[in-house]
Amino acid sequence: MEQIGVSMPWFTPRTKTVIAASILALVTIFFAPKHSFACAALLATATVDQRVGQSWMQNNRALFNQKWQEMDERERLVVRTTWDLWARANQKLPQGEWQTWMVRAGRGFGKTRVGSETVRSWIREFDFVNIIAPTADDARDICVEGESGILAVCGNDDIKPTYRPSKRKIEWSNGASSLIFTADEPERLRGKQHMKLWCDELASWRYLRAAWDQAQLGLRLGSNPQSVVTTTPRPVDVVKELSKDPNTFLTLGSTYDNRENLAAAFYSRVITKYEGTRLGRQELNAELLEDRPGALWTYTLIDQARVKDEQLFWQRIFPRLSRIVGGIDPAVTSTEDSDECGIVFMGEMPWSIGAELGLDLCKVAGVEVPHYYVFDDRSNIYTPDGWAKAAIAGYHQFQADRLIGEVNNGGDMVESTIRHNDTNVSYRSVHASKGKITRAEPISALYEQGRVHHVGSFKELEDQMCDYVPATAEISPDRMDAMVWAGTELAENSMELGLISYEKQSGAAELQGRLKETVAEKAAPGKVTVQRDPAAVVHTGVPTCPQCQCTLLSIIGGGGTRCKMCGHQWNDGATNKAPFYAMRAQMLSGEVRRR
Ligand SMILES: Nc1ncnc2c1ncn2[C@@H]1O[C@H](COP(=O)(O)OP(=O)(O)OP(=O)(O)O)[C@@H](O)[C@H]1O
Ligand SMILES: [Mg+2]
């Protein structure tokens, strides 16, 4: 009664009761010929409660249980799919004027159900109600065929949906249609128009800005284009903007709201993982977290250097990466509850090539330093063979130079599992002897310098990174570790990490002076000897360039080495793969294969 009472203050409680009773009588008569009395009574009271703004099931569980026993299977199906019976107040399509209804809620709140039900009600009136899911798998497995997807909630309706996966479309028996898009292909949204739109899990869209902008440009059919956004939040720019936008109707909800409808396994898996943790405030209570004090990374830091134009990356930057490495942080066990295996791919872009491509890559202390791109995260819960296969598939797909894995947990098992699957992979084991902070800090310093770019967004990886406070961290996040291994391998080869440690420890001013000198030396015609003292770099066992003794080296295709200062190249016996980059460019000139 409350909601009508608020919007129509002239309704006294007595008037409301009379109206409710009359509607109940009428609606029972309407349902009675088609259903048993038990079913008809339920549907009727639900309709009345909906009209007066109540959440029926929350108030009538006992009545429901009793009537449920009296129903046959056909009726139970009708009841199960009657959303009016089930929807809680914060799951109902809001009245009033809004452009975006954002349901920002915790895991398992019933967000997908809200999206499907909203499509279900819109499709009766509008011809083009389209759907955007994070990935093609999510579109099919969650939004369409999932337990709370379109087919499950609308399967029993008079307006029937027919799913046409090859056309990426749902056709409805009333002539309406729903095109299905995925946020990892924002280009497919270009030029497409929508009357209404359902965007599921917006905050984890890989190319969030591009896909959202394209979607909004196309939302222009009919007199009242609207979208429903259902998402667990993350403090990324689009989500922050939408939450503040006056044209957004914001609905908040938590996992606990839907507790009684969640499978015990889901509840215990998700709740045990997140309850009492900071990330739990986001994943369970849907709070938009601020950057965490003391964390090695912040969302702001990652956002600032993020690659938003994924086409530019895959078509122009990726083929020119001088080195690609896949970092692996293997899990020891592979049950449902076990750790994920972190598998993250990163590449290095020399500054000069970036400049040639017209990229605006920052320098450090005037020095043309390389930049790094995190471009794929294939972490998951795998069997031991499964993670090796996933890592090797990525290695071949991206023509990576090396896989690198931590041996602490599984000992030699990591290398033997890799070799068992492919003897020819270039693989190096690393020992996590240094301690997490020592390894992660220099990589976070690279981010601070604006030199590490995420190609699109990687929800789980970034959540782990921004939640990692070295002083208090108890667990070692797998995806973050894999990224740190890959980053360390790339940057250590160019001695970056030594420079950063040195800079951090004491000699910042001195080092910067030397780096400037180095640049001046390099610019002087005929001079190839760079005068930077290798001892300045706090790094043991540093190889140096035979020509100029500089330690800024990078490994090039085929295992050769190139000095980043004087450009001298030499080979330690391995064959030189000169046409390597041309080949990679050719391979990628068509569509880049991605997940
Ligand atoms: N009001 C409701 N009454 C009954 N069942 C509900 C209600 N809301 C959601 N459910 C059910 O709860 C389960 C979880 O819902 P759903 O999958 O929509 O949650 P979600 O928030 O999208 O979860 P995730 O965070 O995993 O994406 C589904 O079986 C769904 O049908
Ligand atoms: Mg969902």
Describe the structure.
- The protein is α/β, with parallel strands linked by helices and 595 residues long.
- It folds into four domains: 2-86, no CATH class; 90-283, P-loop containing nucleotide triphosphate hydrolases (Rossmann fold); 299-498, 2-Layer Sandwich (Nucleotidyltransferase, domain 5), CATH 3.30.420.280; 522-589, no CATH class.
- The chain contains 24 helices and 17 strands.
- It has an eight-stranded mixed β-sheet, with helices on both faces.
- α2 (13-31) runs antiparallel to α3 and α21 (459-467) packs across α22 (478-493).
- The longest helix has 28 residues, at 496-523.
- The radius of gyration is 29 Å and the shape is elongated.
- Residues 1-10, 502-508, 514-542 and 573-595 have low confidence and may be disordered.
- Bound molecules: adenosine-5'-triphosphate and magnesium ion.
- The site of adenosine-5'-triphosphate has 17 residues, from α8.
